[in-house]
Write a structure and sequence with these properties.
Helix content is 39%, strand content 14%. It has 680 residues and is an alpha/beta fold. A hairpin with a 5-residue loop joins strand 9 (284-287) and strand 10 (293-299). The chain starts with 20 loop residues before the first helix and ends in an 11-residue tail after the last helix.
């Protein structure tokens, strides 16, 4: 009889997720019985059979919605467990792996057990394992070391949670698999929360434009993963509920769907629709059939009135899909223009991802990651040097999001005096302070309602403002200065900084709770000197600022390619704009048209002093690649790798993450002497 010793066996205290030791042991034992009945033998070799490429592509297309909403959550989960010799895996409802993200150090071990896209990890194929057993149990499962039925999988520890559609159907499984020696009891908690996040996102997407009521017995839990969600039809029928709603009501999904808003919440549907239409976020007290009192917040992404929604529901035509531009506007807010006057001012034909992708591999990797999360409301943090294009990327994120028709509002936290940033961000009422505008001022947060708020140089925000911003993100309401009225606000945050926020946290310059609230996805934009597409960028800027007839003389090209561009894209744009103004009406920029300070920088660089001293040198100066027009792409790539390795003090994993490549790529490309540990 199977009697494993595992982190969940009676010999070990505690439990993971909702499991207790005795119930877990029973799950594993019954799974082993199913594995035997399926004809599997513990010592048989691994089945490496995988779907053909075309079949896998078709399967992924059939699971497009699941993959689209799971991808950003998987990225975030991977960042939380990075460098733990593990892998995040997404499967379909049958256990076929659709997508995976993993540490390079675990790839070889994963390959040995066929943990890769296209391989089926159902129990009938792989025996007892977290993915297959979770599918059978329709519940979260941990399978550790020798709890796996196949001996070949004893080196693994796996934590999996099922993902359900709003209608209750199993969509797939989210799993973290790693080396059994790296087992941690908190992994299951992260997986379960991530699966719940995917489910809630799918729920809101499925009922986009419908009335959704968020509720919990404790008002402060509304807006968290613990909230229950109900989708309600205009006639009051309950269309769907998430798992948290089922737990809180102590009803099955099928039972909840027999209810109406009146019978379940003791509230008329017209009242709920009215509150949603007015965007009143104050929790409403309701009573469940069990007698339990809860707090509920009704909301909808549509400004349609209840009567209009009811007419639409009874018409033969299908309802139109609402857009984020239809989001309810706060009662005192007026809808601003799509882009505020203080939005990015640098010249570029279009600030969208396609136009920002100009051929550099690092930038392409950043764009690929941003595309995955742009359509969600995941917060994004851009790290980059001043002038490296943070504004352009933030606007591209907005234009790729579901909020693209809403406002894009930008504020530079470093450019606003400390005494004014509170009023600029949160707004103020008439007479709130001496010198205030008559009729008050609508702050940036309310201006961005229904759209995107870009906080540039967030690292320079005063600590007091950080605390207020955190409260807004948690409560989703804004109280202007001099006002006692809380106004609901719905914004997606994109933040940027040229500082390392983690370093600021260590010295007390930035709140760690705000950092983790903002740090949904962090990406680093490469500095201009690290990019291989400088020639293409210059050509695009010339075209955007003057037209296709503008070009650089050959000797000017050489100077441009030599320069280190400490001011990055902003400096390059300004230099070209100045040169064009001096050269006009001539459309060929010569050396005589270049600004004097630019020529001085180049002269200092050639003499070995000046701005060049501010640039991180490569590990081996003898291997420095000359950044002139004749440099090959291979040389530029090698130089970028050397610089990244130097910045991270020889840490290959960190350098690979910055460059968007694998550790194996660095091992292949870099000279072997650079990979040896430094001499003591």
């Amino acid at each position: 009889m199977f009697a494993p010793q595992s982190p969940l066996s009676p010999a070990s205290p505690g439990a993971i997720g909702t499991y207790h030791a005795d119930s877990h042991a029973m799950v594993i034992e019954t799974s082993w019985d199913r594995s035997r009945r399926a004809g599997l033998r513990t010592h048989e070799s691994q089945d490496f059979h995988a779907l053909a490429t075309t079949d896998l592509r078709l399967l992924r297309e059939q699971n497009t919605e699941l993959m689209r909403h799971a991808a950003p959550v998987m990225e975030t989960l991977h960042q939380q467990i990075i460098d733990t010799d593990s892998m995040v895996v997404l499967t379909d409802a049958k256990g076929v792996v659709l997508h995976s993200i993993g540490d390079d150090s675990f790839e070889q071990q994963a390959a040995k057990v066929a943990l890769r896209p296209g391989v089926n990890w159902g129990e009938a194929q792989k025996g007892t394992n977290a993915i297959g057993t979770s599918i059978h149990e329709r519940a979260p499962v941990v399978v550790h070391a020798n709890e796996h039925f196949l001996t070949a999988n004893h080196g693994l520890t796996c934590s999996a949670a099922p993902i359900f559609a709003p209608a209750g159907d199993l969509l797939g499984v989210l799993d973290v698999t790693g080396d059994y020696r790296g087992f941690h009891k908190h992994t299951m908690g992260l997986v379960r929360m991530s699966a719940q996040m995917i489910e809630n996102t799918l729920f809101r997407r499925t009922y986009f434009g419908q009335l959704i009521v968020a509720f919990h017995a404790r008002a402060e839990f509304i807006g968290t993963l613990m909230e229950g969600l109900l989708a309600i039809a205009p006639d009051g029928r309950i269309l769907a509920a998430n798992r948290s709603a089922c737990l809180q009501t102590e009803l099955s999904l099928s039972s909840i769907r027999t209810h109406t808003a009146l019978s379940l919440l003791r509230r008329a549907p017209s009242e709920l629709f009215e509150l949603a239409y007015l965007a009143i976020n104050k929790p409403l007290q309701c009573v469940l059939p069990s007698g339990v009192r809860i707090f509920a917040v009704p909301a909808t992404t549509s400004t349609r009135t209840y009567a209009a929604a009811a007419r639409e529901e009874t018409s033969a035509a299908p309802p139109e899909r609402a857009t984020r531009a239809d989001a309810p506007v706060a009662p005192t807010a007026t809808k601003p223009a799509a882009v505020r006057p203080d939005a990015p001012t640098q010249t570029l034909p279009q600030a969208n991802f396609d136009d920002l992708d100009s051929g550099d591999a690092q930038v392409a990797s950043v764009i690929a990651r941003l595309r995955r999360v742009a359509a969600t409301d995941v917060s994004i943090l851009l790290e980059a040097e001043t002038g490296a294009g943070k504004e352009w990327f933030s606007l591209a994120i907005h234009r790729a999001s579901a909020r693209r028709d809403g406002p894009f509002v930008a504020i530079n936290c470093a450019a606003v005096p400390e005494g004014l940033i509170e009023s600029e961000l949160f707004g103020y009422e008439d007479g709130a302070f001496t010198g205030a505008r008559r009729k008050g001022h609508q702050g940036k947060l309310l201006q961005a309602h229904g759209g995107t708020l870009f906080l540039d140089e967030i690292g320079d925000m005063p600590l007091a403002m950080q605390a207020r911003l955190l409260r807004v993100l948690q409560e989703r309401v804004v109280t202007p200065l001099g006002s006692g009225k809380a106004i609901p606000v719905d914004v997606r945050l994109v933040c940027a900084t040229h500082k390392r926020l983690r370093d600021l946290i260590k010295v007390g310059g930035f709140r760690d709770d705000l950092y983790y609230r903002l740090n949904g996805l962090t990406v680093r934009l490469p500095a201009l000197r690290e990019r291989s597409d400088l020639r293409e960028i210059v050509s695009r800027l010339l075209h955007a600022q003057g037209g296709p007839q503008w070009r650089l003389a050959p000797d000017v090209w050489a100077l441009v390619m030599q320069h280190q561009w400490p001011g990055n894209l902003r400096q390059l744009s300004n230099v070209l704009a100045t040169a064009m103004a001096i050269a006009a009406p001539v459309t060929v920029i010569g050396r005589e048209h270049l600004p004097d300070d630019f020529l001085d920088d180049v002269a200092e660089l050639n003499s070995g002093s000046g701005s060049a001293a501010n640039i991180a040198p490569p590990i081996n100066a003898s291997r420095t690649v000359s950044a002139n027009a004749a440099a090959s792409l291979d040389d530029l790539a090698l130089d970028a790798m050397q610089r990244a390795l130097a910045r991270h003090h020889g840490n290959l994993s960190a350098a690979a993450r910055e460059l968007g490549v694998s550790r194996n790529t660095l091992y292949r490309k870099l000279p072997k002497d650079l990979l040896r540990p430094a001499s003591p």
